[in-house]
Amino acid sequence: MWQVLVAAVLALGVSRIAATAIPEPVEVSLAASTAHVEPGKPFDVGVLLRVQPGWHVYWRNPGDAGLPTSVRWAAPPGFAVSALSWPVPRRFDQPGGVVGYGYADAVLLRSTVTPPPAPAAQGPVALRAEVGWLACEQICIRGKKSLDLMLGGDGAAANPAVFAEWAPRFPLEAGAVGTPATVTARGGVPADGSVGGVTVTLDWKEAPASVEWFPPDDHALAVEAATSRTDGARTLLTFRAKRLPGEQLDGATLESVVAWTDASGKRHGLRVPIDLDGKET
Amino acid sequence: MTLQRKGLAAALLVLAVAGTTRGAATVGQAAPEFVVKDQDGREVDLAKLRGKVVVLEWTNPDCPFVQRHYRAKTMSTLADRFKNRDVVWLAVNSTNYMDAAKDRAWRAEQGFSYPVLDDRVGSVGGAYGAKTTPHMFVIDKTGTVVYQGAIDDDAAGANEGSARNYVAEALDDVTGGRPVRVAETKPYGCSVKYTK
To answer: I need a surface site. Which of A42, A79, A151, A156 has the fewest CB within 10 A?
Structure first.
């Protein structure tokens, strides 16, 4: 009888401590498409973030607020790691008209690793990922984690299933075979700091059920407007911005994504680069 | 009821009727007027500050971006630097679940001297279109918005100490009688936690 009471009191005490502790809404793990590294043969690695219900983490452009999720990979000499591929995000509309772009539930941030053509030393290959994020619900919490991935040694395990599961959630390349729309662009954002506009036209092979644009951003740009308008089988994206004096652009081409749903309600994504230098396509 | 209170009540009524219709403070245009109480219950009337440069800093003690800047004393250092040059610094807290008591406690704990305006109803935030904490606005002596956006160019906090502070530059320009060299940037931070 006494043991039960003591256990109950202890359980109450412990649960109260847990309630006031800072929540950890994000779990991070690494994945690799192969356990064995072959010279010159590219393979995929990924950072999987699992997010508690009600919370979200952010896309490369977080929207009006937030912070992009970040991954820095470190690999042995001779190994090249590509830039991150981001699955198609979701839009979060918060009170007061504050818009966010990101992910609830989970997100796999994928990179391709290309090993050197000649095998270096034998033995396991160590990769390290430094992951940073901002998780928001009612409040926001910053998180970071450093994780190691060992490939090629005994006990190295691959999970190609994760990559197969997530493959359809990544946006297609604009010019890829079977692309759902032809994309043409006009305009640019001048180097002299005056306001410029880029207009991108998407002519869909089949009119989509709905279209949503996730526009780009860059700390060296002041974006005035980023609007999307769809009429039947044509979508018009308008991007107006000016370059900030004294700031360096990350690149002349910005990444944006158009998400669309087909007649069956399935969601797809298309990468739409925004070329600030005004090369007409 | 004083005229000011009637005006504020009317403004709140209009906002309530309009629902989520929001304004926005636009660079080059008149800063939206407001009368709001600070953490000690004193009324702060923007119209009465005409003739001074006013900085509005949207804040939220629960936001990690704000916490980082307050650890580094970014805002109070800047506020102190320009205090004797007719610059008034006002923090605005539009966090729906906070109140004047919380603002008082936070202000005392952080040790800064500028007021924190109690905007938990979100009307000032709505009028300005404040999106993040921090989100900064600089208003010149004629009551015109001359800067709006981020405090600096370092959202991730990677370059603490050597970040480019846009508000410092704007205040240097406006107190020096020069046009503000960077009038607008994209603000960064947590989303303002407006009431639903």
So the answer is: A42
Domains A22-169 and A181-275 agree in fold = yes
Class at the top of the CATH hierarchy for domain B22-191: alpha beta
Question: CA A173, CA B13: separation in Å to the nearest integer?
Answer: 49
Statement: A22-169 belongs to CATH 2.60.40.1250: yes
Cβ–Cβ < 8 Å for A118, A39? yes
Nearest to A228 by CA among A85, A99, A109, A107: A99
Token digits for B169?
Answer: 């530059």
Residue B47: both structure tokens together: 């119209």
Q: What is the pLDDT of residue A118?
A: 83
Q: Contacts of residue A140 in chain B, CB cutoff 8 Å?
A: 62-64, 190
User: Which H helix or E strand runs over A202?
Assistant: strand A196-204
Report pLDDT for A107: 98
**Rounded Cα distance, A203 and A180, in Å:** 9
pTM: 0.87
Partner B contacted by A11 (CB < 8 A): no
Domain A181-275 = CATH 2.60.40.740: yes
Q: What is the mean pLDDT of chain A?
A: 89
Q: Could you tell me which residues come within 8 angstroms of residue B158 by beta carbon, excluding any fewer than 6 positions away?
A: none
Q: Does B136 touch chain A (CB under 8 A)?
A: no
Residue spans of the domains in chain A: they are: 22-169, 181-275
Q: For A191, list phi and psi in degrees, rounded to 5.
A: -75, -15
Binning pLDDT at 50, 70 and 90, where does residue A4 land? low
User: Residue B164 pLDDT > 80, yes or no?
Assistant: yes
Q: Which residues of B touch A96 (CB under 8 A)?
A: 20, 22, 94, 122, 125-126, 130-131, 191-192, 194
pLDDT of residue A121: 60
Chain A nearest-CA residue for B66:
A140
According to the model, what pLDDT value does residue A236 have? 97
ipTM of the complex: 0.84
Q: Is B178 on the interface with A (CB under 8 A)?
A: no
pLDDT digits (tens, 9 = 90+) for A209-261: 999 999 998 888 888 899 999 999 999 999 999 998 778 898 889 999 999 99
- Considering only CB atoms, which chain B residues are within 8 Å of A219? 153, 155, 186
| Rounded distance between C-alpha atoms, residue B55 and residue B47, angstroms | 14
Considering only CB atoms, B189 lies closest to which of A65, A132, A245, namely A65
